[in-house]
Design a protein that fits this description.
Its main location: endoplasmic reticulum. Helices cover 70% and strands 0% of the residues. It is mainly α. It has one domain.
Amino acid sequence: MAAAGSGGSRADNGYGGQQARRRKGPGALATGYLVIYNVVMTAGWLVIAVGLVRAYLAKGSYHSLYYSIEKPLKFFQTGALLEEYLLIAKYLSGIVPSSVVLTAFQVMSRVFLTWAVTHSVKEVQTEDSVLLFVVAWTITEIIRYSFYTFSLLNHLPYLIKWARYTLFIVLYPMGVSGELLTIYAALPFVRQSGLYSISLPNKYNFSFDYYTFLILVMISYIPIFPQLYFHMLHQRRKVLSHTEEHKKSE
């Protein structure tokens, strides 16, 4: 459940242009479905962005802005679960240059943080760290889903491609920091309440300590975050350098 792809990684599961696998493209029906999905997700994250800005202007403060976008955030972040099903179509169409399993894992980790941490531990919803990862997610997803949409339509502006493979340099560490700080802030409340924990004895002869589980989740960021971050740096060099070479050859 780690390294949720907060600042633009998502294992680079996007429609990759030159870096994608050279396979037969999706049919008209599949393309139409994928375009609609990505347009809706782009619009949804734009709604979240506008909600954040409006709430900030109304309050004059960035504290506790989570409540202004809580419902759309839950809806559209959970809507990313559909992406796990769409990944198969993306893979078969040759537009997924990286691991389908890793991408699905990242989708689930963000949904986990949304529901199992931020929703479940009400006390952390006022933490500034929540705003940190929400802002990172929002900017990332607007760019990412726009990238997918234009790629499917074969009209990808260079600015969106550049943003997709550049802004993650800041957004990814920003988002991961927010996620870790939020989980850390939740720990004392989880320990005190015994949230989602199961103690012995019970008829199933099974125990589970959610507090310990969250600590393990935080530790898992250590090996996963660098792997994903350097993967994106590698993708950036490959994609943008290829674009520059293509421009020079024209």
